[in-house]
């Protein structure tokens, strides 16, 4: 989705550059005064193009929101429970019995609807409708736009908008509906076909949703059922669902202060880093940095905390507490800046209610206090 947004953004920037830079240059080469180029007739002719670009963006946003809405409706109809609804960084969650807005950043996605799975045996949980719901809504929007274009005689600006709705809808439907992996991430169509065949992967999928819901509700990782963190057997490092289980299991070990267990699992993950997508590679390196600093492996932590990882951590720190843990631990252990580390800890404590995943916040604060206590002032 974000890849499409970048393409549309590039088109808009290119159009602006063409208008502001290229057109005047051509006019000067031809010896024409700019007043003859940028006249009323020229601007009137530009209006449909400008509206087309605006309609393109509006259609894209609508398809994202309604796509995720499709997942929500399909999930509710098949027994799932609402957890969060996000488009871009705007995230709607349920907290204390009412809906609240939060800010959350996740690389590689423009929207996401997360739900808690039904409390049923695995074989009775249906994942197909949940994954199909978004694409079905996109298809309905495309058909509706084409039907209105065919059946009604409407103003030109309405026709342009409907054409953009159909164009974006077809593009989004193909990208999400045709089973494939994009940059290592399985799309809805792939999950639709694969999860019911891959029972270990389906279990990882349900566990991931369950852990996310519990963390958002503030349940500590140490109190979550141990079964949610069991690794699939055999473990397939190329399977994104299996990798989500690896990260969850390592997080649970860290919550239990089982540093060496977490270190061994993450070391094995590092040894297979070419098998899984970039996002998971960055997450593994981030967690390895944390574990190394918690266990006094400062030199090894420097190897994992590369410029790329530091950039990734900085980008997500405003909305993800575990990235603030990394920033704090690096400041204390690698930079020797204890005042900054203490300030970051106090800031997270003061703002803890602003974060979506309260279970993650509690874990981050616990580990912050632990590393502060094990590295007393010199």
The fraction of residues in strands falls at 5-15%
What is the residue-averaged pLDDT? Answer: 85
H-E string: HHHEEEEHHEEHHHHHHHHHH
Helix amount: 55-70%
Work out the number of β strands.
Answer: 6
Low-confidence stretches: none
Question: What global shape is seen?
Answer: globular
Question: How would a crystallographer describe the biggest sheet?
Answer: 4 strands, antiparallel
Q: Strand order within the widest sheet?
A: 3-2-1-4
Intertermini distance: 49 Å
Report on this structure.
The chain is an alpha+beta fold and 378 residues long. The chain is 66% helix and 8% strand. It contains 15 helices and 6 strands. The chain has helices spanning 2-30, 34-37, 40-77, 128-151, 156-177, 188-194, 199-216, 240-255, 259-271, 278-294, 298-304, 307-316, 321-334, 338-350, 358-374, and strands spanning 81-87, 90-95, 98-103, 111-116, 181-182, 185-186. The strands form 2 sheets. The chain has a 4-stranded antiparallel β-sheet with strand order 3-2-1-4, with helices on both faces. Strands 5-6 form a two-stranded antiparallel ribbon. The chain starts with a helix and ends with a helix. 37% of the residues are buried.
């Amino acid at each position: 989705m974000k890849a499409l947004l970048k393409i549309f953004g590039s088109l808009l920037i290119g159009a602006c550059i063409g208008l502001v830079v290229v057109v005047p240059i051509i006019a000067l080469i031809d010896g024409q005064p700019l007043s003859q180029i940028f006249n009323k007739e020229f601007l009137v002719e530009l209006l449909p193009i400008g509206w087309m670009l605006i309609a393109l963006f509006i259609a894209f946003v609508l398809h994202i929101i309604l796509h995720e809405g499709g997942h929500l409706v399909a999930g509710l109809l098949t027994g799932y429970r609402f957890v969060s609804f996000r488009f871009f960084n705007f995230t709607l969650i349920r907290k204390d019995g009412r809906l609240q807005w939060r800010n959350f950043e996740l690389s590689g996605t423009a929207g996401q609807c997360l739900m808690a799975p039904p409390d049923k045996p695995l074989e009775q949980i249906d994942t197909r409708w949940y994954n199909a719901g978004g694409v079905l809504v996109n298809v309905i929007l495309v058909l509706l736009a084409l039907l209105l274009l065919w059946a009604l005689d409407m103003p030109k600006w309405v026709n342009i908008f409907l054409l953009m709705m159909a164009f974006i809808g077809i593009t989004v439907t193909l990208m999400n509906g045709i089973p494939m992996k994009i940059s290592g991430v399985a799309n809805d169509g792939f999950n639709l076909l694969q999860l019911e065949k891959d029972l270990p992967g389906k279990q990882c999928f349900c566990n991931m949703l369950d852990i996310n819901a519990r963390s958002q509700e503030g349940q500590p990782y140490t109190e979550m059922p141990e079964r949610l963190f069991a690794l699939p057997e055999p473990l397939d490092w190329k399977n994104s669902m299996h990798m989500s289980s690896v990260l969850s299991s390592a997080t649970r070990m860290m919550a239990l202060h089982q540093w060496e267990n977490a270190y061994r699992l993450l070391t094995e993950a590092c040894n297979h880093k070419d098998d899984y997508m970039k996002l998971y590679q960055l997450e593994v390196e981030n967690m390895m940095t944390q574990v190394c600093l918690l266990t006094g492996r400062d030199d090894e932590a420097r190897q994992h905390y590369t410029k790329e990882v530091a950039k990734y951590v900085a980008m997500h720190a405003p909305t993800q507490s575990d990235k603030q843990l990394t920033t704090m631990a690096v400041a204390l252990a690698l930079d020797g800046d204890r005042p900054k580390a203490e300030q970051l800890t106090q800031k997270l404590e003061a703002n803890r209610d602003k974060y979506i995943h309260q279970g993650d916040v509690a874990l981050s604060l616990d580990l912050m206090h632990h590393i502060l206590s094990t590295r007393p002032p010199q």
